[in-house]
Amino acid sequence: MTVTVETLEKLERKITLTLPVLNVQSEVQARLKKLARTVKMDGFRPGKVPMNVVTQRYGYSVHYEVMNDKVGEAFANAANEAKLRVAGQPRITEKESSPEGELTFDAVFEVYPDVKISDLSGADVLKVSAEVTDAAIDKTIDILRKQRRTFSQRPHDAAAEAGDRATVDFEGKIDGEVFPGGKAEDFQFILGDGQMLKEFEDATQGMKSGESKTFQMVFPADYHGKEVAGKTADFMVTVKKIEAAHLPDVNEAMAKSLGIADATVEGLRADVRKNLEREVKVRLLSRNKQAVMDALIAAAELDLPTSAVQSEITRLMEGTRADLKQRGMKDADTTPMPDDIFRPQAERRVRLGLVVAELVRANSLQAKPEQIKAHIEELAASYEKPADVMRWYYGDNNRLAEVEAIVMENNVTEFVMSRAKISEKSLSFDELMAQN
Predict the structure, then answer these.
(1) 3-111: CATH homologous superfamily?
(2) 44-48, 97-101, 105-109, 321-325: which range is least confident on average?
(3) Is the dihedral of CA 196, 200, 202, 207 positive or negative?
(4) Which distant-in-sequence residues (6+ apart) come within 8 Å of 30 by Cβ?
(5) Class of domain 255-434
């Protein structure tokens, strides 16, 4: 076998492969003979099917398999010999056979690029910080209280107000026709919780049990129900019951109901603080990691392999279809989705993956076993039985690989932060929590 490598443009390469015909033919015959020992055909005993019959029935498919195997093997050997890092699958085309009894193929493919990362001391990274305040703890405890509120029916002549639970019948029409989801009976919602559009809540507020009201409501242009988005509906609502909310007191009983080990108000606040600090740490790490990745992309020069971008587009498209299907979209598998919708995200992912891989390789930033263990221990600490969580992670290679990737990204973040120009910004707790 002889190999030639030709550089086409940028990352594209071409390898010309030649295979002796006799090698292919002998392998085909060897496989057919092996097949003949076990093949079953009507009219013949197992292992007694004549070779010419086996060849007639299976010759083409066996020849196809051998050619695939031989060409694939030849390509892998040639790429390895030339020390090429192949990106994606090669496009292989057969050329005319040579008089010397050789089969010739052209394999066109892409290689991974050389990644050049400029001096990171010139990179600008915005590092954000935030603290868990007493106000944040109070707000969280209020949420916990709301989750455990109870309701009692208010007097018949009491007007509905914010915080009350209303039970209503309603019917909405657009151009005189009831629209899907526009009608309900004994529907419950809490005024002020944002479950219903503000106009609906405003219309219900102040009404008493047994009262009815008609009003118009304009659906927002970006409303999730596309069939009514931006349209004006005529509603009729009848209030059937108004219930007042009762929030539990912040005391030892509440702490106990939440399973707090130290069932005191102080113990409750300490537990909430610990959980919020854990959440703040995760969000800060995510934000700062994102800033680092943005800086890395800006500092890197590289060509993107088209095949890798296309593979990422396919993955993103498949993920979107699966998500739509899970949400109940019936034609999710056939809905047209142009590649360009996913291309910017796919290109960023491929670019970032190559840049991070080069930085990890050049600076030995791989996740170490002790780092992986420490990260899993931290994850497990928030659960009732940490040892079970540890076993869950270590019992599956895919889960371990996910943790390894996170730890590696953390190593990259710390590495870049230690070299880049850092500007710091303090966020309030609410600002941090409001951002995705």
Answers:
(1) Trigger factor ribosome-binding domain (3.30.70.1050)
(2) 97-101
(3) negative
(4) none
(5) mainly alpha
